[in-house]
Amino acid sequence: MTASTSPSARTAAAVAARRQRSQAAVQRVHDALAALRRQKVRVSVAAVARRANVSRTFVYDNPKARVAVAAALADAGQRHTQLGLAQDDAQQAVWRERALNAEDALKNAHAEIARQRGSIGELLGQIRGLQAEWDDETIARITTENTTLKQRVQLLTAENRMLQERLAAARSTLRFQDRRIADLETRIAEPTSLPAAVQPGELADQGSSSLCTRANDRDKLSNTAAPLSALPNDGRPIIPEDV
Questions:
Q1: How many CB atoms lie within 10 A of CB 227?
Q2: Is residue 174 part of a domain?
Q3: pTM of whole model > 0.70?
Q4: Under 8 Å between Cβ of 102 and 66
Q5: In this predicted model, which residue has the larger pLDDT, 220 or 74?
Q6: Looking at the domain assignment, is residue 115 inside a domain?
Q7: What's the rounded Cα separation, in Å, for the pair 180 and 210?
């Protein structure tokens, strides 16, 4: 009787110990599920088994653990679905706003393109008008006239320079003659300074001849400076009275 009850007692103790370990494992599974929910980590059998320090076989074989994990998976799937729907709604709102903005930008772009096309058409019309007004023959004629005028300006500039030099020489000669006349007039006004051999009649003759010479010099200078009045000098005519 004692021999038969000993194995049964050991069996009962082993079953009780096994049941206790199973309950402890199931409790760890619940604790792992709660920790995953708090941390907002995706729930899976592998994650629960790894966090509860049990095997996947235990999760699948133990009814309490399997039910708890299945409920957690369903809850996580529902929350994921709701979160996905919320994100979809937010994305749809964003994309709707972007679509409206893109449509407005497209309308503005079409309006700007139409305006630019109108401006291009007007400019092309102006270019065609200019091309019709200034044909090749007219351009060649204007170019030839411009070249001819440039050559004439160069020629007139050279002639003007030469006449300016002649005018400067004539003015220098005139100043020299004026100084000679002033000297002769001074000698005439001071008879005491005349040499003894010079008589008053001769002095009068010399004065008359000097005055004639001065008049002739002025006539020559006037004849020399007269053509200058018809030539340009920096855009102004040279007047003989300025000599």
A1: 13
A2: yes
A3: no
A4: no
A5: 74
A6: no
A7: 9
Q: How far apart are CA 214 and CA 180, in angstroms?
A: 9
Distance CA 78, CA 94 (A): 24
Interval 185-194: pLDDT, tens? 888 887 654 4
Q: What whole-number distance in Å separates Cα of residue 119 and Cα of residue 94? A: 37
Given a cut of 80, is residue 160 above it in pLDDT? yes
Question: Does the residue 25 lie in any domain?
Answer: yes
How many C-alpha atoms does 200 have within 13 Å on its Cβ side?
4
Query: Is 195 domain-assigned?
Result: yes
Q: Among 128, 226, 104, 105, which Cα is nearest to 170's?
A: 226
Token pair listed for 161: 């320079």
Query: For residue 60, how far is the Cα from the chain centroid?
Result: 72
Task: Tell me the CB-side half-sphere exposure of residue 173, using CA atoms within 13 A.
Answer: 17
**Structural domain range at position 212:** 158-242
Question: Looking at this protein, which amino acid is placed at residue 56?
Answer: R
Nearest to 64 by CA among 12, 24, 34, 36: 24
